[in-house]
Hints:
The chain is α/β, with parallel strands linked by helices. About 40% of the residues lie in helices and about 15% in strands.
Amino acid sequence: MKIILPGGSGQIGKLLARHFHARGDEVVVLGRNPQAPPEPWRTVVWDGAQAGDWADELEGADALINLAGRSVNCRYSAANRAAIMNSRLDSTRAVGAALAACAAPPPVWLQSSTATIYAHRFDAANDEAGGLVGGADAGAPDAWRFSTEVAKAWEAAAEEAALGGTRLVLMRSAMVMSPDRGGVFDTLLGLARRGLGGRAGDGRQFVSWIHETDFLRAIDLLLDRAELCGAVNIASPNPLPNEAFMRALRAAWGIRFGLPAPRPLLEIGALLMRTETELVLKSRRVVPARLLDAGMGFEFAEWAGAAEDLCERWRSRHGTE
């Protein structure tokens, strides 16, 4: 297969590129930086906004997986909000225009979205059919509403650009957990190892997550199953409250205590770290109903087992530094 990965130079992109390259597929990453460290796959430069020579790579390709978009790990200033929104909409529209110009476009387009599209809730899980899309959550901070509006606009841009002959899947992904440096798991484990891995806020907010092994298996299933289109949740079937999530992570590493972080302290920490507390305080209770209905089994359905595997692999890669 020939697989095109716009925005594939980030952590998730590299995870996918390694996976496809290892099984013998031709991988083409569309990235902004021609001076990036060399990889065993090709990187073609694009600006993420306009058609260019990169569009030729789509002709006759087997799959397009669009991951492009500015990181949300920042303060939501006016400038950053504009960059977050525009980077997603511009790149999605550019990909759609390039597909429209193809004589033989890829038959499947997997488009990044996010589990953050769902409302902050504790009472029930959000699946694709009955989940509550956010935006009107009572009492939700402005930053949370902004994230939801970005997700909705992102999906709408893909749907507007989609072609009749190309199957579009909107990947509403939870946090992907891998032992790679700089990822979500690496960050959370770092807090736990420094004694800061207690509950965040009151610890009631649900954490939706997926182990990298199951994430890759989900992507393979979405590429292979022609009947799957539209929104698909990519998450473990067992989200859990933050307090239990952090307790299991500490146990997997062998740490008994983690200092709790009350909400006011989190606000100060987020300000100092130039990020937003939404990333840890919003309750994301998301389940993968469509993947389960399609017959996908999860190798790591429970967080305790996933955390043990990830800790073991983190140690094997990085030691105990």
